[in-house]
């Protein structure tokens, strides 16, 4: 798999321009497009960068078609996710050391039956799930007591609560001390929460 540290700063910039162009409009830039973007007047100057990217495994070019620049599958995989910059302590202080590894958050939740829901309301705030967060849910019809679930109430409403089966009913418990639980005779589990994603403002 190609590594970005093989590239010079200009080669990386050209690669990112090619990648963004393909993602934005569905096909690659021309040599002239690249030249105009980087102030390279000579087509040969652009070709040098393209040859380097091809040699290093980041792109492939099909024949002599003007827009036939494609990203290799390996470079697409390399570019996925966020840079993993190390570990940071929430207790004692440690140095956060930059690393070249990347982390794809989607990989944590990849699997059959996974989906995401945007949270509305603050009934689960004490479980660190706030209004506007996204919960990642594994679709299933059963849950263990105490798990956070997507449940359907007796009235057919969908809600996010702790699942607590009792003798002749189910208690759907909010994680908010100002709110009362919901009691149901025939509540159904639609899925179990396996992750929370929050974008800080």
Quick recap of the structure?
The protein has 201 residues and is of the alpha+beta class.
Structure explained in plain terms:
With 201 residues, the protein is an alpha+beta fold. 24% of the residues lie in helices and 25% in strands. The protein has two domains: 4-78, Winged helix-like DNA-binding domain superfamily/Winged helix DNA-binding domain (Arc Repressor Mutant, subunit A, Orthogonal Bundle); 107-197, Ribbon (Umud Fragment, subunit A), CATH 2.10.109.10. The longest helix is centred in the first third of the chain and has 17 residues, at 9-25. Mean pLDDT is 80; it is low at 87-98.
Which properties best describe this structure?
elongated, 5 helices, 25% strand, 201 residues, alpha+beta, two-stranded antiparallel ribbon, 2 domains, Umud Fragment, subunit A, Arc Repressor Mutant, subunit A
**Termini separation:** 35 Å
Number of helical elements: 5
Beta content: 25-35%
Instruction: Please give the number of β-strands.
Output: 11
What proportion of the residues is helical, as a percent range?
10-25%
What structural class should be given to the helix and strand makeup?
alpha+beta
What's the helix and strand layout?
Blueprint: H1 9-25, H2 31-38, H3 43-55, E1 59-61, E2 69-71, H4 73-78, E3 82-83, E4 102-103, H5 105-108, E5 114-118, E6 134-139, E7 148-152, E8 158-165, E9 170-173, E10 182-184, E11 188-197
Antiparallel strand pairs: 1-2, 3-4, 5-6, 6-11, 7-8, 7-11, 8-9, 9-10
């Amino acid at each position: 798999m190609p590594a970005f540290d093989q590239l010079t700063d200009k080669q990386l910039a050209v690669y990112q321009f090619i990648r963004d162009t393909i993602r934005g409009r569905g096909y690659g830039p021309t040599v002239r497009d690249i030249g105009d973007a980087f102030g390279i007047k000579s087509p040969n100057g652009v070709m040098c960068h393209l040859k380097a990217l091809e040699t290093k495994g980041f792109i492939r070019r099909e024949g002599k078609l003007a827009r036939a620049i494609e990203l290799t599958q390996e470079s697409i995989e390399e570019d996925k996710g966020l840079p993993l910059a190390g570990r940071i302590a929430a207790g004692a202080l440690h140095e956060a050391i930059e690393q070249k590894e990347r982390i794809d958050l989607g990989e944590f939740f990849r699997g059959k039956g996974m989906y995401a829901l945007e949270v509305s309301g603050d009934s689960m705030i004490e479980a660190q799930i706030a209004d506007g967060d996204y919960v990642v849910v594994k679709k299933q019809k059963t849950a263990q007591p105490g798990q956070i679930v997507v449940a359907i109430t007796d009235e057919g409403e969908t809600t996010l609560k702790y699942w607590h089966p009792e003798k002749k009913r189910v208690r759907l418990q909010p994680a908010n001390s100002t709110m009362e639980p919901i009691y149901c005779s025939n509540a159904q589990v639609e899925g179990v929460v396996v992750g929370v994603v929050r974008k800080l403002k």
